[in-house]
Write a structure and sequence with these properties.
The chain is of the alpha+beta class. It is 20% helix and 35% strand. The protein contains 6 helices and 18 strands. β5 and β6 form a beta hairpin.
Length: 288
């Protein structure tokens, strides 16, 4: 008997696949399975007689691969030969899919270490909504990720480097009210509990930053490059096409008149079920 399979999708059955292995073993996988896209990709993209049944079975039953040696990509992120794991658990979101593609193709560690560092910090963000919407913001607007895992964004301020909107904030450890000074090198903070966490609300309390175009539109004399830890992002308003975010902390890097750059391309996930923009080469531009 040769390996056989059926892929199905209907309102009554849902979406999934049934795989009959050459030894007669039958396994089913639903679209809810973290490895569904990869399983379907193998089944539809590889001649049946060339499919590695052992590898396919480990995708269907991840526990079978637990005994394998893990490749540590960082302290908390690893690769088991088939999946990206965070603290030992399989991760199947967009950023994991991208790291997996690079690692599986034998990519140089330099090509994914920034993403791994970003992933580690992102997963310390307590808000699942923030984690999901932040990565969408990153890939949608070609946002540059630093090798340490932080990312760069922009903020428009007044000519004296004061914030356009006035309010409470902590600047370099000093609490103050009013127009907050944004001098290069300064760290600005606000209690996370005070930041509006609703992605459906465009204008809300918090430290704001965004894309180059968005921040430039708000600038009243000066545009700043700021650096943000993914864990500190509280919300990414959807009503602005994810062009800005609210955070509880950022560091001012410099005044700028130039956008930082990153090379992007479209990566297929699964079997063309959908496509996502992902970051490939991470570069950082500077002031000119």
């Amino acid at each position: 008997m040769a390996l056989m399979y059926k892929i199905f999708s209907s309102d009554n059955e849902g979406s999934g696949a049934t795989v009959i292995f050459s030894d007669g073993t039958i396994q089913q996988v639903s679209q809810d399975n973290a490895n569904f896209g990869r399983v379907v990709g193998i089944l539809t993209g590889t001649p049946v007689d060339e499919i590695d049944e052992t590898a396919l079975l480990e995708l269907l039953i991840p526990a079978l691969g637990v005994g394998k040696n893990l490749t540590r990509l960082s302290e908390r992120v690893s690769f088991d030969g088939s999946n990206i794991l965070f603290d030992g658990d399989v991760v199947s979101d967009a950023i994991a899919e991208h790291i997996l593609r690079i690692v599986s193709e034998g990519g140089n560690p330099d090509s994914y270490k920034a993403l791994v560092a970003f992933m580690e910090k992102l997963y310390t963000n307590p808000s699942e909504s923030s984690r999901n919407s932040l990565y969408d913001f990153i890939v949608r607007h070609n946002i540059t990720i630093d090798p340490d895992g932080d990312f760069y964004a922009y903020k428009g301020v007044k000519a004296d480097l004061g914030s356009v909107w006035e309010g409470f904030g902590i600047v370099d450890g000093v609490s103050m009210n009013g127009s907050l000074p944004n001098k290069p090198g300064s760290i600005l903070e606000i209690p996370r509990s005070k930041v509006n966490a609703d992605n459906a609300v465009g204008c809300g309390t918090g430290l704001h930053a965004g894309t180059y175009a968005y921040a430039e539109g708000w600038a009243r004399g000066v545009l700043l490059l700021v650096k943000i830890n993914p864990r500190d992002v509280v919300s990414v308003p959807s009503c602005t096409s994810y062009q800005k975010l609210r955070t509880c902390r950022y560091k001012v890097i410099s005044q700028t008149t130039q956008q930082t750059t990153a090379t992007t391309y479209t990566a297929k996930v699964g079997t063309d079920l959908h496509s996502i923009n992902t970051i490939d080469k991470l570069t950082k531009g500077g002031d000119k």
